[in-house]
Amino acid sequence: MPGKFCVSLTCARDNTDKATVAFVVANAAAASDQETVVFLSTEGVRLAVRGYADDIAEEGFAPLKDLMANFAAASGKIYVCSPCFKRRKLDGTAIVPGAVIVGGAKLVEFMSSGCPGVSY
Question: Quick one: how far is CA 60 from the chain centroid?
Fold first, then answer.
């Protein structure tokens, strides 16, 4: 029976290793028949802007833009913290596929049934 899984990510260019590994894990969860959400907060919200991750590539891993695209293609959802996004004055009309800008209540709703998760 499918379950749920959440990956919380607070990094972007400030720690591309963590950002990459978070999406590797998210893809693994989605491929394991888990309804998977990546929750982007603080600096991580920058990854939701189209083009931002295009040149991020950690040695030994697929490029981050490919990991993100594969996650969206696998029906993964990217929840983007609304206050964090607004604080950084980012463009909400230019977000990546699979991303939706949400308040914290949406994450709480998703995880309220005892959803496991990891944080990066």
Answer: 20
